Amino acid sequence: MTGEEAIVETRGLEKAFGLVLACAGIDLTVRRGETVALLGPSGSGKSTLLRHLNGLTRPDKGSVRVLGVDVVAAKGSELRALRRRVGVVFQQFNLVGRLTVMENVLSGALGRVRGPRYGIVTWPKAVRAEAFEQLDRVGLADRAYQRAGSLSGGQQQRVAIARALLQRPELVLADEPVASLDPETAASVMDLLVRVCREDGLTMVCTLHQVDLALTWTRRVVGLRMGAVRLDELTDRLDAVRLRGLYLSDPVTVP
Ligand SMILES: Nc1ncnc2c1ncn2[C@@H]1O[C@H](COP(=O)(O)OP(=O)(O)OP(=O)(O)O)[C@@H](O)[C@H]1O
């Protein structure tokens, strides 16, 4: 179910890197419970837009509000408090390979359970139980005590999703969450990510390269090109042909 409450709101968002305008005045509203894919050719500004949403990048102009917080003005403890409410899933999983799967998942609770923690037994029993539940949910309860680095890419991304869920986030940001995976694994990880977000009523914004995955799994597509929103549509009203237009080079005018 999606509500009316705006979870993400950018207005006139501009960001340049030297002469490159990565975000050229982006207005984006994402409401509670929506699952949104940011699509567009390489360099169109998808990751830069996503990075603004948890304050990893600061805009040159414009406003960014996430979960009611003015991200541009937020500093220090306010920004840390916001980041605790935002789960992030990365393309390269970002697990600590030498630690067990369970320890990696438990680290998702570091923001709400005071640390430092050394080893699994130092975590409160209730948090361990919750971590185990999340691992079970992503289908990896039987791998809890295995080294994370020994898992396949798809399994590692499932662990990263369990870690993000243990954070009890309200918003999930996923930057190319399946770009490093083979097509079959990519589909199963997208299925998992969207399913858990729906089950928990979480809002999810991801960047994707695969148009077919966006059409299958997300509710809404925002298409970027040269830092501007060129398309913003519910997925069930879109077809692949229209979407492919986003990726075509601009027609060359022959004099
Ligand atoms: N830290 C940075 N320093 C310099 N230029 C940057 C930086 N981050 C992004 N850019 C540039 O901004 C533009 C948008 O990059 P961004 O990574 O947001 O695009 P993208 O759509 O996510 O691309 P991809 O699909 O290839 O990941 C690109 O031209 C990129 O080179």
Automatic annotation (TrEMBL):
Gene Ontology CC terms, in alphabetical order: membrane
Domain ABC transporter: 8-251
Gene Ontology MF, one: ATP binding
Keywords of the record: ATP-binding, Cell membrane, Membrane, Nucleotide-binding, Translocase, Transport
CDD domains: ABC_PhnC_transporter
InterPro entries: AAA+_ATPase, ABC_transporter-like_ATP-bd, ABC_transporter-like_CS, ABC_transpr_PhnC, MetN_ABC_transporter-like, P-loop_NTPase
Annotated SMART domains: AAA
UniProt KW Ribonucleoprotein keyword: no
A Pfam family matched in the record: ABC_tran
PROSITE patterns in alphabetical order: ABC_TRANSPORTER_1, ABC_TRANSPORTER_2
PANTHER family: AMINO ACID IMPORT ATP-BINDING PROTEIN, PHOSPHONATES IMPORT ATP-BINDING PROTEIN PHNC
Protein name: Phosphonate transport system ATP-binding protein
Organism: Nonomuraea jiangxiensis
